[in-house]
Amino acid sequence: MSTSPSTLRFDVKAELRxxxxxxxYSVQNAGPSAVYLLNRVPDISMQxxxxxxxxxxxxxxxxxxxxxxxxxxxxxxxxxxxxSPYVTVVRAGAHFEEIVNLATPVREFDAYLxxxxxxxxxxxxxxxxxxxxxxxxxxxQESEIQVVPGVKALVTRLxxxxxxxxxxxxxxxxxxxxxxxxxxx
Length: 185
Description:
The chain is mainly β. 0% of the residues lie in helices and 52% in strands. It has one domain (8-182). It is globular and about 50 Å long.
């Protein structure tokens, strides 16, 4: 469990079940305003699923680092625009929970680079989850749009002169032996 800030409670559990890494996380918002989780990661066709999550293997730590946030653009890649997840609103006093299922061996998943196809399976020693978010600001407006057939997304608009303060909820490292496909450096 990781709590940041004091008005948000972030609980995370990870386990291996039926050949899958299952990560369950929840956010309890005890604050006075809504927060917007950057958790609805889209695939290339703009579809989304709870199981879509960015995954880095941190080889030096033997750590599976999974995150739902705005991904960094890797060196040498020049996308026309950064990829940003759709958001889930968690109103003041509300609770949100999501379950992510990843096939094992776990593979890296980057927004801008193709996933590895081959490699050596190595056991890693832990899992860490990060979820990006921003808080409601006075005058923020919400609307729902149709992204592609079957996918609706919440869009927020800021009033002039306002900015979003992007933050992260990060779990501690959860000790868990997880098979990972190691490829490349």
